[in-house]
């Protein structure tokens, strides 16, 4: 299996009515040297200024971003190369949010999702590993959480690697 850590920045709470602005992905390996970054032109006239502000981009900047179909095709090709013969596994810090956008964009613009129908949540995995639903994994990140989605995906991937290497998580990476 090829675990791919993903992080999404968006200008609102749901896809379709609002837009995914950018996203980052990293193949979870000790080197963390295979990454993808996409910036996507908005698909909706609606946006929430405070949500957009988190991304660090202005509305005017996002309107010059790339066509969503092209970005999603490029991402699908990257996933295929990164995963090789392994099944790609989507994992993120907040998969309820990140998965919703990635899955919707893949189905809307490509007709299928290379990750299939499943995703995994890093936070839930950590809570189960330490057997405490009140614990948070974020102290395991090394890369600072900047809201650059590649940085954030890398920090989360580092946390997953620490869970494997230091906390005994049984996972094939």
Automatic annotation (TrEMBL):
MF-aspect GO terms: exonuclease activity; nucleic acid binding
Gene3D superfamilies in UniProt: Ribonuclease H-like superfamily/Ribonuclease H (3.30.420.10)
Domain of life of the organism encoding this protein: Bacteria
Domain 3'-5' exoribonuclease Rv2179c-like: from-to ranges: 3-161
Keywords: Exonuclease, Hydrolase, Nuclease
InterPro entries found in the cross-reference section: RNaseH-like_sf, RNaseH_sf, Rv2179c-like
Protein name: Exonuclease
Organism: Chitinophaga silvatica
């Amino acid at each position: 299996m090829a675990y791919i850590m993903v992080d999404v920045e968006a200008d609102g709470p749901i896809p379709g009515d609002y837009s995914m602005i950018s996203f980052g992905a990293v193949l979870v390996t000790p080197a963390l040297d295979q990454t993808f970054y996409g910036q996507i032109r908005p698909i909706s006239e609606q946006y929430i200024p405070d949500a957009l502000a988190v991304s660090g981009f202005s509305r005017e900047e996002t309107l010059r971003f790339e066509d969503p179909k092209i970005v999603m095709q490029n991402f699908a090709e990257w996933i295929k190369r990164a995963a090789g013969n392994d099944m790609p596994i989507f994992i993120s810090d907040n998969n309820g949010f990140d998965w919703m956008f990635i899955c919707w964009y893949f189905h809307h613009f490509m007709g299928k999702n290379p990750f299939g129908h499943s995703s995994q949540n890093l936070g839930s995995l950590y809570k189960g590993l330490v057997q405490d639903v009140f614990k948070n994994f974020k102290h395991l990140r090394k890369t600072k959480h900047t809201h650059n989605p590649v940085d954030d995906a890398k920090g989360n991937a580092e946390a997953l690697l620490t869970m494997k290497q230091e906390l005994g998580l049984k996972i094939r990476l």
